Amino acid sequence: VGGVEMRNSARAVLMGSVDALTDKTFFSTIPQGLDQQKFPVVQPGNLPFFTSLCEWAFQRHGVIRVLNPSHTLVSSGASLDEYIVETLLEYSITVQQLDNGIWKPYVVDDMQLEVTRLTTFGRVTYNSTTNGVYTARFYAPDFIGIYGLHTRYRKLGFTTLDHQVKIIIRPRRHNDYDRIIRGAWPYYLT
Question: Where do the OST48 middle domain residues begin and end (predicted)?
Answer without folding.
Answer: 77-189
